[in-house]
Amino acid sequence: MKYARLTKEQFEELHKEFINFLATQSITAEEWAELKSTKPEVVEQELDIFSDLVWEGVLNKVKFLEHISPQQLMLFRISQTHIDLIAIKIENTNIDITTKYGYKWLQQNIQDDSVVLYTSTKALKEDRNKDIFVLIQQGASITKGELFTYFSDLLEE
Question: Containing H/E element for 74?
């Protein structure tokens, strides 16, 4: 397994897609029921293969990620060859940017001495999707890139 197995809820959400997947494997509903009772290891393999296929499809489309913690904002833009990072660290521990007040404070005080901005670019390894998956496992969320664009534009001013 390359990524992680989907959760029970995710499998339920993708029920129709999973049925289609089994059909492409020439596994009927009756055969699936039999496999579950007689060959649980085959069932496990099929669940893992389907999970990896779903993850590949999702990860192929990822262009932006963000990871927000009380004093840090990590914004990623992902191309086919590299990842651009905008990192914002708040050294004032009284400010929590995960709250509405804290985020508004950040927007209004971006030039404050307690706000540290970093940017960097990192070349992706041979497996782009695996690099993205690691960031997701570390707590990053897939986004449309609004925050990256907002702060990128601020940095260019």
Answer: strand 72-78
